[in-house]
Amino acid sequence: MEPAAGDAVDVEPGTVRPGGRTARVREAVLRAAGDALVEQGFDRLDLADVARRAEVGKTTVYRRWSTAAGLVADLLTEMAEQSVPRADTGSLDEDLRSNARLVVRTLTDPRQGPLFTAVVAAATCDARTAGALHRFYAVRIEEWAGCVDAAVARGDLPPGTDAREVIRAVSAPLYYRLLASGDPLDETVADRAAEAAAVAARAGVYVR
């Protein structure tokens, strides 16, 4: 039987996929939480305000998510699940370019860019949010690592290449521009990051 609105949930947020009305409530609350994060940042994220934005009962939000960190953890779970699947072009260079361009599109999106910035900022001061952010990126890196493994299987990269390190090398300079230097992010920058990672991988830099 579907739990009634406001029932306590004794599991980590994001570990149960609700259905029916519960799913609709979760969707509304997570969208409202994202809006609030973009507008106000993590330090001002208030569950009562999120409930008001989502037009759901305050008790429902408090009982299901308990804290702002729990809410952000569930939001990151949702973002990981909704992310675009990896490219599979049969070319390492094209796959890495697709990955880099996807990262740039996300980070420059009017909503997603500020949302990621807010979540990363929150993770620096909240252990639970940091854990959720680490899980989010682990899911995305694992997804895209397949294109590197395929390149190894084709003989395009040396045996023993660490696929996850290659994917991290693609996105690291892009996040640096977003969070540290403030330099422009565009497709040219994306393509350069992808090419640098591919060249390094072919040279054996990422062989374990």
Provide key terms for this protein.
208 residues; mainly alpha; Arc Repressor Mutant, subunit A; Tetracycline Repressor, domain 2; 2 domains; 9 helices; 0% strand; disordered N terminus; transcription; TetR_C
Give a nutshell description of this structure.
The protein is mainly alpha-helical and 208 residues long.
Topology overview:
Elements: H1 20-40, H2 47-54, H3 58-65, H4 68-82, H5 92-108, H6 112-123, H7 127-154, H8 163-181, H9 187-202
Helix pairs in contact: 1-2, 1-4, 1-6, 2-3, 4-7, 5-7, 5-8, 5-9, 6-7, 7-8, 8-9
Describe the structure.
The protein has 208 residues and is an all-alpha fold. The protein has two domains: 20-75, Arc Repressor Mutant, subunit A (Orthogonal Bundle), CATH 1.10.10; 83-202, Tetracycline Repressor, domain 2 (Orthogonal Bundle). It contains nine helices and no strands. It has helices spanning 20-40, 47-54, 58-65, 68-82, 92-108, 112-123, 127-154, 163-181, 187-202. Helix 5 runs antiparallel to helix 7 and helix 8 (163-181) runs antiparallel to helix 9. Residues 46-65 bind DNA. Keywords: DNA-binding, Transcription, Transcription regulation. This is TetR/AcrR family transcriptional regulator. Pfam families: TetR_C_11, TetR_N.
Q: What are the segments in which pLDDT stays under 50 over at least 5 consecutive residues?
A: 1-17
CATH superfamily of the largest domain: Tetracycline Repressor, domain 2
Termini, distance in Å?
50 Å
Strand content: under 5%
| Helix content class | 55-70%
The biggest beta sheet reads: none
**Given the structure, what is the number of helices?**
9
Series of H and E elements: HHHHHHHHH
Q: Which structural category fits the helices and strands?
A: mainly alpha
Please identify, by name, the CATH architecture of the largest domain: Orthogonal Bundle
Q: What characteristic shape results from the CA principal axes?
A: elongated
As for the CATH topology of the largest domain, it is Tetracycline Repressor, domain 2
Instruction: Name the CATH class of the largest domain.
Output: Mainly Alpha
Number of strands: 0
